Amino acid sequence: xxxxxxxxxxxxxxxxxxxxxxxxxxxxxxxxxxxxxxxxxxxxxxxxxxxxxxxxxxxxxxxxxxxxxxxxxxxxxxxxxxxxxxxxxxxxxxxxxxxxxxxxxxxxxxxxxxxxxxxxxxxxxxxxxxxxxxxxxxxxxxxxxxxxxxxxxxxxxxxxxxxxxxxxxxxxxxxxxxxxxxxxxxxxxxxxxxxxxxxxxxxxxxxxxxxxxxxxxxxxxxxxxxxxxxxxxxxxxxxxxxxxxxxxxxxxxxxxxxxxxxxxxxxxxxxxxxxxxxxxxxxxxxxxxxxxxxxxxxxxxxxxxxxxxxxxxxxxxxxxxxxxxxxxxxxxxxxxxxxxxxxxxxxxxxxxxxxxxxxxxxxxxxxxxxxxxxxxxxxxxxxxxxxxxxxxxxxxxxxxxxxxxxxxxxxxxxxxxxxxxxxxxxxxxxxxxxxxxxxxxxxxxxxxxxxxxxxxxxxxxxxxxxxxxxxxxxxxxxxxxxxxxxxxxxxxxxxxxxxxxxxxxxxxxxxxxxxxxxxxxxxxxxxxxxxxxx
Length: 534
Prior knowledge:
Blueprint: H1 2-33, E1 41-42, H2 47-54, E2 73-75, H3 80-93, E3 96-100, E4 118-122, E5 129-132, E6 137-141, H4 146-154, E7 160-161, H5 172-178, H6 185-188, E8 195-201, E9 207-208, H7 210-213, H8 215-221, E10 231-238, E11 240-241, E12 246-253, H9 259-269, E13 277-287, E14 294-304, H10 308-318, E15 329-332, H11 334-341, E16 362-370, H12 376-388, E17 394-400, H13 404-407, E18 423-431, H14 436-452, H15 484-495, H16 499-509
Parallel strand pairs: 2-4, 3-4
Antiparallel strand pairs: 1-2, 5-6, 6-10, 7-11, 8-9, 8-10, 12-14, 12-15, 13-14, 13-17, 16-18, 17-18
Helix pairs in contact: 1-3
InterPro entries: BBE, FAD-bd_PCMH, FAD-bd_PCMH-like_sf, FAD-bd_PCMH_sub1, FAD-bd_PCMH_sub2, Oxid_FAD_bind_N, Oxy_OxRdtase_FAD_BS
Organism: Canna indica
Family: Belongs to the oxygen-dependent FAD-linked oxidoreductase family.
């Protein structure tokens, strides 16, 4: 036994020495390739490493996970050549790479890994927003947040906007490339639908724009997850027109106020409303203070691209049962509406520039798409399960489809969830306890709710939204091409029939699968998956 331990210790020391040599070679390579500028690279023994690593981490449950690997280096590029050096040196010396924009990856895959050693390219310094009012476009650094885009686009021009998400601290690097749903999608489509160019570094360390990358790769970047194919440095986006004033509302209904009937009706009404009107539902279980009983609180949040006197007749005709009144309505600029929907209780637009994580917490998300209305009995079953979860802080967010987002063909860009969907569901739970047992209890409960929803949502495959990443759908246990068959498990959920085309793009631009993560797209050259429609 003693001999075995001695041999094992020698092997461990040898492996550690070899790994230290790899890291040393990478560091020297990066310095040489970036003209000996060391301000962009941080090793674990530097004072800035921990601060930078934690600076945009939104999901704390991965910080204490012993099964994950932390990065060998953090790189905060200030120019394209820094990213080119990070990629080229990583491939040369066997260090993987993760790209972090805002740190909102639901499964933490932008900053931790269950695979081998890797570096993080943190894009926080590449966050400029350059608006060209004459052409109605803007170049946006991939490290910018959605809030920074909103601020730069809307503060100085009340009639300019961009369709993107509700949470303003989301980084655009992942958000745009995964789709980007929000309050303007029924009028103008997703964020990805309004990306017209991109600047990226590919697996060969080349700097490419739309022309030099080609239309197939540009197609893949819009909805296929850019981190599968390279490192996007910036996007050129098409701005959209909004009126000087929009009208918003937020109405809460409980079970005693016909919440079940209203949600059931909303399912078919919301996708058919005029494109200028967006109404979503946020449903959660809550205690009734007077009795101590449980109820469901359904919040109907809406935005109308127009004034209140225009909205009231539309609602009276389309959804009178909701009981919307004049005193429920607020008129404001579009950029002010982004502050309101984000949950800020101040009106100063500069809050949109904040990059600070909103909560010091853990969270988990899942998603579904609904193609047929859930009947009233179904909602009663769902509500019962939610109310029985006394200590399960879940919110179910229902986002309406229809309008422009449904008019675009499923093959126009890589994002496939189009016509035929009534709405998307996000199941979201946030908790502040750090005990592993609490985390496991929350995750188990959410999985059981997701299973309960099976008969009511899409199937074959059960569609899911890439930006609400869910490792429960499956994960790749191998780097390189060995994970190709595994990647079909979640590939169909996220990409539907676009998965095979995405895998072919991957095979062309990253055949060695350098840009691997636990839910990345594997190169089509490694295997030939069958379409789920066959």
